[in-house]
Design brief:
Layout (H helix, E strand, L loop, with lengths): L1 E7 L4 H9 L3 E8 L5 H8 L3 E4 L5 H15 L3 E4 L8 H6 L3 E5 L11 H7 L4 E8 L9 E8 L6 H24 L4 E3 L2 E3 L9 E4 L1
Parallel strand pairs: 1-2, 1-4, 2-3, 4-5, 7-10
Antiparallel strand pairs: 5-6, 6-7, 8-9
Helix pairs in contact: 1-6, 5-6
This protein binds 5-O-phosphono-beta-D-ribofuranosylamine (GRF).
Length: 204
């Protein structure tokens, strides 16, 4: 079973979904840059090692993070609502790292994705799990989930609907990675037979 670390900054509902889904993978560590993150309580309740790193000095915070990963030897890092950008050097020095983002990338990297969907009158919205590289929300796409938008929906309603889809997407993708059914090298995705494959798409 692969060991997974999850980095969070807030509520931790994606973390909770991963914890509930554990059987092919094990969440062994939760790391946060926010001492008051609700997700930290979820980790504690579930008896998972948890670490708060003060991020006021980014350089020293990332050094601490790199050293921690040398110690704990996880095989996958999941950024789930982690609101700090990791420097390219850090990304290269830590185990493979993926992120969940609340939009159908490459549409709407960055913040306020639900508001952008409304402003553009998009008829679909969704979430993306991608490999973390040295740019914001830009790495190789591993999977996406989408759903139809009702044009009367508020940003809050969109967020509430999307978060449930995020849980489904993230647990699916992490499960596939843990099972060796999805892997990547440079910009290519591979299936269990090491044949090139496409990202996972869930139409919900
Ligand atoms: C999610 O919408 C995720 O896509 C974004 O931040 C939010 C985190 O939610 N990056 P939670 O902390 O997992 O509940």
């Amino acid at each position: 079973m692969i060991k997974v670390a999850v980095l969070i900054s807030g509520r931790g509902s994606n973390l909770e979904a991963l914890i509930k889904d554990q059987n092919k993978y094990q969440i062994t560590h939760v790391i946060t840059n926010k001492a008051e993150a609700k997700g930290l309580k979820i980790a504690q309740r579930n008896g998972i090692n948890n670490t708060y790193i003060n991020w006021s000095d980014r350089r020293s915070a990332e050094k601490t993070l790199i050293n921690l990963f040398k110690e704990i030897k996880v095989e996958l890092i999941v950024l789930a609502g982690f609101m700090r950008i990791l420097s390219p050097t850090t990304v290269k020095s830590i185990p493979r790292t993926i992120n969940i983002h609340p939009s159908l990338l490459p549409k709407y990297p960055g913040l306020n994705t639900h508001q952008k969907v409304i402003a553009h009158k998009d008829i679909t919205h969704g979430a993306t799990v991608h490999v973390v590289d040295d740019q914001l929300d830009s790495g190789l796409i591993l999977g996406q989930i989408s759903f139809s938008v009702d044009l009367n929906m508020s940003a809050e309603q969109l967020a509430a609907e999307l978060i449930l889809k995020e849980h489904k997407l993230l647990t699916t993708v992490v499960g596939l990675i843990a099972n060796n059914q999805l892997s990547w090298e440079a910009n290519n995705l591979y299936n269990s037979k090491k044949q090139k494959t496409k990202p996972v798409y869930i139409d919900d």
